[in-house]
Specification:
Number of strands of chain A: 3
Number of helices of chain A: 4
Shape of chain A: globular
Oligomer: heterodimer
Helix content of chain A: 55-70%
CATH superfamily of chain A: Winged helix-like DNA-binding domain superfamily/Winged helix DNA-binding domain
Distance between the termini of chain A: 17 Å
Strand content of chain B: 5-15%
Order of helices and strands of chain A: HEHHEEH
Largest sheet of chain A: 3 strands, antiparallel
Largest interface: A-B, 18 and 22 residues
CATH topology of chain A: Arc Repressor Mutant, subunit A
Structural class of chain A: alpha+beta
Number of strands of chain B: 25
Radius of gyration of chain B: 38 Å
CATH class of chain A: Mainly Alpha
Number of helices of chain B: 28
Helix content of chain B: 40-55%
Distance between the termini of chain B: 26 Å
Largest sheet of chain B: 13 strands, mixed
Strand order of the largest sheet of chain A: 1-3-2
Radius of gyration of chain A: 16 Å
Chain lengths: ~110, ~900
Amino acid sequence: MASKGLMAASTKPLILTILKEGKSYGYLIIQKVKDLSGGALEWSDGMLYPVLHRLEKEGYITSEWMITANGRNRKYYSITEQGKRELIAEKEDWLSVQAILAKLWGTIPAE
Amino acid sequence: MMFDLETEIRNWIRNLRSNPGFEDGDIEEIELHIRDSIEESIYEGSSPEEAFKIATDSFGQPELTGFEFIRSRTADLKNPRQDRLAHNYSNPENPISAYWILFSNHLKMVFRTIRQNKGLSFINILGMAIGLAASGIILSFVHQEYHFDSNLKYAEKTFRIIEKDGDSYDEYGYAPMAESLLEELPEIDDAMRLAFYYGFLACRSGENNFNERSVIFSDPHFFNFFSFPLMEGNPGNCLSDPHSVVLSQSAAKKYFGSSNPLGRQLEISDGIMFTVSAVFKDFPVNSNFRGDMVLPLDCISELTQIRIEPSWDYHSDINTFVQLAEGTSRTELTKKTLQFFSGHRNSTQTTLLFQPLSDIHINSQFIWESRPQISNRILGFLSLVAFLILGVSTINFLFLYIGIASQRTKSIGIRKVIGASGKVLFGEFFKEVSVLMLCSLLAAIPMVFFYLQVLVPAFSLPDLVYADTSLVLTLLGVLLLADLLAGLYPSYLLSSKKALTLIQQRSEVSLVSFRALPVLSILQFTLLFSLLSFNLLMQKQFHFLINRDTGYARDELFTIPMNMPLGHGIHGERFVVFAKELQKLPALKQVTASFSSPASAECYTEGVTWEGQQDSRKQKVVWSWESVSYDYFLTLGVELVQGRSFDPGFRGDAVNWETRECAFVINESGLREIGLEDPLGKTFSIWGFTGPIIGVVKDYHSLSMHSEMRPMFYFCNPLFWNEVVLRLHVDQEISVDDIQKVWKQFNDDYPFEMNAVDEQIRDLYTREQALAKSLTHFSLLTVLVIGIGLITLSLLSFNRRIKEIGIRKVNGATSLEILRMLNKQYARFVIISCVLALAPTWFFMHRWLANYAYKTSINWWIFFVAGMVTLLIALVTTSWKSWQAARKNPVESLRSE
């Protein structure tokens, strides 16, 4: 299981990536994260919403209330242009970190 | 117990609501999340109970989520200034928007807090609104009483002239005075004379036939001088023709319907035709003037028995009003009038005083005034009640607000940890209080309208027609002050506490010092007790005044106004014939005539002399007088203690105009005044009439009970008869038609009107009754406000004692025992309050009763009843909370420890 700090740092690229594939709502986003990580990233569901709130406030995503086919009201989130740019930047950061770590660990075997 | 999924979800969500981190949108979204999760688990085969557990477990701790929400929201509020600067750089076109975002955010939070405590906030707003509305109405009323005729254009420079001669004051003056003042004193801009006529004038237009009362006779420039607005006609010349009449709007409607009254003819008194020259807007409630008709002063002798003496020899029944030039000192001018007077009359000490127009209603001590008056002391009492209501409702508002705020000490503590400074918190509390105050103010406005539109007409309460900006500003100022206080106090309390103690929320770290609670409760009970006792006493006094034995047969007496001019109808010799005709009716006991109704013989004079009078200063004694017909005392049912009554058998009894002789009867007070052992046959004289005292009549109340019994003399002058007085067998069926038939035989042209003397006596007290009634209403409102305050206080103190109650219950106390214990405390408070309030209340009651010549007693039962009612109110308002506290499951109250 990943550490708290790492999880907190990874939420932003994770959510932005999921939303880049299309608009989605809170419960579904959580499920996707769980499916993708196969349980390696164990969020408590409640922590997702303040993050969504902050991302929206920072302008990376927008939200709207919509009525779904079964008549239920849902808050859908979608990524903004600014969010897409941010995702590219995030991706570069993470990839560069990963490249450095791979370079390091490629020569030093893990214990 | 069965597991009910819906209930569990609702409870879980309710728990979220009590957390200030969540906004409504967040909660809705989270609820959907939980439901989605539960549905999926159930779909996969879990039971509802398991599904609920899975969903809530995987959601995690709501407190942490709430905390995260707060952090994400307050992240940019930590330093508003920096934020604003950043915003200004990024958005130079709209520097205001940063403020606006901050402000609207705060406003949103304020409304959220109010919504979280819907019930209590509603009580708080309601209580304050009632306080504001009631005190606003009372203060406006008092203000109105002090500003009679203030809305007239020249109100501030208009004065009534009072003649001061040594110790005696007179509002009646000499007819040529107005003109001379204008000529000789440059300080006087304008002067005018008018007479208020209190008799009846029969008026007729075609079929419309009415008695007019309170007619004003005036110099021609009345409407220019006082600037009462005219609906029709020209204020400059509407009274210049001696046979012109100006009608009020309602009188014009009464006589001429909807057709144009201008130029129409009105027959007044005995066939004298007057032309309607103008129509004025009815005199408002806050005016010294009343009545529906203004006539030229020149025609007063033609229509009434009043004579205007054109020389400086005698007073006439006229008031003189003047307008002073700007910057005139009244005291200087009064000094100057000494010389003015000595130039016209042989007088060395007579001066003129200038009474402001607005003063007439409040401070005048003269007998005949234009409108029933109100005493300064009653107005003082009303103002006191107003400030009490305002004070109590503000204090209650403050404490209830703090009570509500103390429910969120935890969130306040968290905000302090995050970095909210005392200043920021103060700003927020201040905004919150301001919004609540504003809501109360808005809620008070419809209450005031309800009072004016519904209650005033329904209960004939005193109406309000006058308000000015200074009053509104004062009220708003008081509101602002209360706001400041209420905002300052909790902010100070909160910012002075350490964040840690706030978060732990230990019971001793409470926002209100609990030592203050009993003091506040006792204060409210003391007020309640005093107010109730005073109200009871007031009702008792008015009941006493109205029903007190007047000393004559008031229930059997009726009066008919003799509204025809002298020499017509039943005046003079024909009265005897008329009386004989009436006596044939079986219901009639006696019939007589008099100058005024027995209910109010408000005629006074000085200058009475008698044989053997020792001290010349006694001339200053004011005597009441009454001109009566034969059988007067028999009709009234009043005993003669010495001598006899007027008798047609004795020729010298009635006034003889040639020799100026007549007989006099005096009352017992009069006898005490002249101090003679054997008054019968002694000479008595007044106004140049001289004659023997033939009888002494027992004292009875010919005046309202406001005044003491006065010395009074009676004489028999047929020219001075205004009212027919009938005494009827009230146990027999009385046919007014029969009496009217007889009236018609003698006075076909004049309208018939019969009034019960008992009703007239009640009318003497209508204003006081209206006042007493409105005082009762306002006191009830105060009781309501105090009740709300008591609920607040009990709420605050029970929240504190919840654990104690829990422990007692665990140890075996029953709910009833707990209830008794809690209520015992309040009963003790009530007893302490009553003891504290007793002496000052008794003192004020005593002072108030001293205003009345005839007063009821202050009984012990007044205090007993007031005390019992206070206790009842205390128990009713506190019991619902006590009961709740006593019934509470101790597991719940002790769980958090």
